Amino acid sequence: MANQDDIVSAKKTIETEIAALKLMEDEFDESLTRALDLLQNTKGRVIVTGMGKSGHIARKMAATFASTGTPAFFVHPGEASHGDLGMFTADDTVLAISNGGESKELSDILVYCKRFGIPLIAMTKNPESSLGKAGDILLRLPAAAEACPLGLAPTTSTTATIVWGDVLAVGLMERKGFSKTDYKQRHPGGKLGAILRKVADLMHKGDEMPLVEEDTSMQDALLVMTSKMLGCVGIIDANGILKGIITDGDLRRCLRPDVLSQKVSEVMTKNPKTIAADVLAVEALNTMNNTGKGITQLFVVDEKNKPVGVIHIHDCLRAGVA
Length: 322
Prior knowledge:
Elements: H1 4-26, H2 30-40, E1 46-50, H3 53-67, E2 72-74, H4 77-80, E3 93-97, H5 107-116, E4 120-124, H6 130-134, E5 137-140, H7 156-176, H8 180-186, H9 190-195, H10 199-202, E6 211-213, H11 218-228, E7 232-236, E8 242-247, H12 248-253, H13 264-267, E9 269-270, E10 274-275, H14 281-290, E11 297-301, E12 307-312, H15 313-318
Parallel strand pairs: 1-2, 1-3, 3-4, 4-5, 6-7, 10-11
Antiparallel strand pairs: 7-8, 8-9, 11-12
């Protein structure tokens, strides 16, 4: 049974953090546009830095930037003071994060940016702090109470910082026209990589395609279907246009003594479902699952309806597209 005090506490935490985000939303101004302009036009890398909880968020922020089309990396302020300042160049932009703006570990980075003319975006709730004054652009965190009952542990402030990072990352993606293809190139592994694979990545092509012409006998077509092991054969005309398909299911449904002597054109399903090579494999899987006819393979065709490949439902499942 749920403890009502726990539920009240949870709701209070959420309400406190939502209030802070609403406050931040109301304070967006030209600084957001200036920051996006600077980040978008950075020739080098975006260097994100912060200490403590801000450092953890800075790592996440840099990773989000890098995976969505804005080259970025994290530098720990302590390591920066012991040689990692050498990673900074005049072509870079620094995004420094500190809720109160007085993290002394950031001081060497602030001085270095000023000395070598490296643009600095300051993210803090205190514009009069050392960080706030040093920044060329100030992205202000909301001056809101922490959700922590002691008012001490970073809770509301860290949520707001994460949201600021997402605001910047999404804004840059939209400005750059960052696409699913771009995203796939940065996420080749795991579930995301699988979902973003295209039909062209998985299809059987060239000699692997089971194809026969319209006047081929069913006996010969069956030999082709068996040798290619895709459970189907495509029927093409003299110009290489796909005219129909015969699947192993079709064979079972039309078994009769004279079927092997018939022409494929007499047995085939005309105008079969097809798909393009440049669509996502998950779309091919959805097409196979939602036709209501138990389709397990699709011919992949070009703009002239000529076969360029075959994709089987097992290809999708093996690749993790589901």
